[in-house]
Write a structure and sequence with these properties.
Radius of gyration: 26 Å
Strand content: 15-25%
Number of helices: 19
Length: about 575
């Protein structure tokens, strides 16, 4: 949440630099000169198949849980899309021993942060960060919804969450250009492919989901043998093992889950479409199929997209936004996925500019890169940007890209939670020549899809709500025997917090420069990262009468050029150091 009168709004900049010598030094072929960061971990497997990955870090009294179920649209079938995302919602609705809608209440009452669940094409995850003396509470909550959700999964809850998910989809459909993003995937993949549908599912499939379907889906995929729990932070390893045996070991193993083997047909002729939407400015979206996640060529595709349109130092921003001023915005990225990755560029026009003009300008920049390849400076800058984002997130135990999440990511795709140094090495193995070769193969014009978004009527494929008596006659079978339920009745008592942990915060060294600027310095050598916050002690409260917004406007001007650097030079220099 942002407050307009925060003191220091005039000049407040957080700079995160991955130090150049540590990750992208200028030695031979840009290979690192210092030791790469590593994630020390332990990995065990319970008898029921649950994988547990742990990383100890006792600097702060915090612990993060990050539970990945190896299920997503990858595992869904045509006509049954959106089930994984539906369960992302259902898992917060209440399990047998925790109670209805009590998950958030327990976590927030314990001081947890970063509580969330997300669904991607290849997986579904749930995570939270707790005070370390509340670790047992987190394990109690996660184990109960893994093992005891079906007892509370009835037609009423399903009906409610169908409505919630469909409203979430409608909110997305109401956003400008969202329909075009779905159209891109419809062109990239055939209709029977797992990646064809939106992660959230179609209105028709969500509405047609029935209680027996979703309960079967849960039994198949939300079992310990199809999940990995990553735990990072301040914990005692022996005590953690005891708690894992207590909370997760009794949960029965589920059916085996076969590896998905689906071929992704290549695109050998450009596919085009035009989407009408309630937008003011046209947009051109272009996408390509790129190699699967964590292959070497997938790194070249990432770097190519970063050089082409990944930020203000990219070629498309420099030419289309800054120089020619025909584009309002340029965004290019690459999404690594198991079956085939997706590279995508979205270019939004300035008023009066036609999408054909944008596409021609895009083609020109791609052709130049395919003819000559990137420069060494562009390669180093792109590599630094990608690696800085990757390593900077490791300052957090949990959340997106945090230590626990990264261990699960590497484990999901490679079976190696400590893959980070090898991952970084992939980027250093990329060369001008390898990126040049990738640009001429996967990024050829006849291998892409192109979608124009233009002003017009928004067409949404909605369907009516199911009748009120849907599933009313379905008889639900208890998942466990009465003896097993009686043996697990102890779970109804939430665990108590452990002793309050001791907090040892770092103490900064404080000094002043000759010009009076005060500096607070905290040294931390765990990662090759430097963070700097520059704060000017004047904000919106200093706006002159009749000039509201002047402070905010001034702050935005600081990156638009100085006497010694233009806006593009500032972008080049800052991106160059990550």
């Amino acid at each position: 949440m942002m407050h307009a009168n925060i003191r220091g709004f005039l000049v407040a900049a957080l700079l995160v630099f991955v130090l150049r010598p540590a990750l992208a030094g200028q030695g031979d072929h840009g290979k690192p000169d210092l030791k790469l960061p590593e994630i020390a971990y332990q990995k065990i497997k319970l008898a029921n198949g649950l994988e547990v990955i742990t990383h100890e870090d006792h600097r702060l009294p915090l612990v993060s849980l990050d539970l990945w179920y190896h299920v997503g649209p990858l595992n869904e079938k045509a006509g049954r899309t959106g089930f994984a995302h539906l369960f992302e919602h259902m898992m917060f609705e209440g399990s047998e021993h925790v109670g209805e809608k009590a998950h958030f209440r327990y976590l927030e009452g314990a001081g947890a942060t970063g509580i969330n669940g997300t669904t991607d094409f290849d997986r579904t995850n749930y995570f939270e960060t707790l005070p370390s003396n509340q670790l047992e509470l987190g394990l109690w909550l996660e184990s109960d919804r893994m093992g005891f959700l079906l007892e509370k999964l009835d037609r009423e809850k399903l009906t409610n969450q169908r409505d919630v998910v469909r409203n979430e989809r409608r909110q997305g459909e109401g956003m400008p250009y969202e329909l075009a993003q779905e159209e891109v995937f419809h062109l990239l993949f055939p209709k029977q492919h797992p990646y064809y549908a939106s992660v959230i599912g179609s209105h028709a499939d969500i509405e047609s989901s029935r209680i027996s379907d979703v309960r079967d889906f849960f039994r198949q995929y939300y079992a310990p043998n199809n999940a990995t729990l990553a735990i990072a932070g301040d914990f005692d390893a022996a005590e953690l093992k005891r708690l894992l045996d207590k909370y997760f070991a009794p949960i029965p193993k589920g059916p085996s889950v076969d590896k998905v083997r689906v071929s992704t047909p290549a695109i050998n002729q450009e596919r085009r479409s035009t989407v009408t939407d309630t937008v003011q400015l046209p947009r051109v979206s272009v996408a390509w199929l790129t190699p699967p996640a964590f292959t070497q060529n997938e790194v070249e595709a990432q770097l190519f997209m970063q050089i082409l349109g990944g930020g203000k130092s990219s070629r498309l921003y420099r030419e289309l936004v800054y120089k020619d001023q025909i584009a309002q915005k340029v965004e290019c990225d690459e999404m690594p996925l198991a079956l085939a990755s997706v590279a995508n560029c979205d270019i939004t026009a300035r008023p009066g500019v036609k999408p054909e003009t944008l596409e021609a300008a895009l083609d020109k920049q791609i052709k130049e890169l395919q003819n000559t390849g990137p420069t060494e400076e562009e390669l180093n800058r792109a590599r630094n940007m990608i690696l800085s984002r990757k390593v900077e997130r490791l300052q957090r135990l949990g959340g997106f890209g945090g230590v626990a999440d990264m261990m699960n990511l590497y484990n999901q795709y490679l079976g190696d939670p400590g893959y980070l140094p090898k991952d970084i090495s992939r980027y250093h193995n990329a060369t001008i020549q390898s990126i040049h070769a990738e640009s001429r193969t996967d990024f050829a014009k006849d291998h892409r899809v192109t979608v124009y978004t233009v002003a017009g009527k928004k067409v949404i494929d909605d369907v009516p709500r199911s009748p009120e008596n849907t599933d009313a006659d379905v008889k639900l079978t208890p998942p466990y025997s009465s003896d097993f339920e009686a043996a697990e009745a102890w779970r109804s008592n939430p665990p108590s917090a452990g002793p309050s942990p001791k907090l040892n915060l770092p103490v900064p060294a404080v000094f002043s420069l000759s010009n009076g600027m005060k500096v607070y310095l905290v040294e931390d050598h765990a990662l090759p990262v430097f963070n700097a916050t520059v704060l000017d002690m004047a904000g919106a409260e200093a706006n002159p009468s009749g000039r509201p917004g002047l402070a905010a406007f001034t702050a935005r001007m600081l990156v638009q050029g100085t006497a010694s650097r233009s806006a593009l030079q500032i972008a080049d220099d800052s991106d160059g150091i990550g």
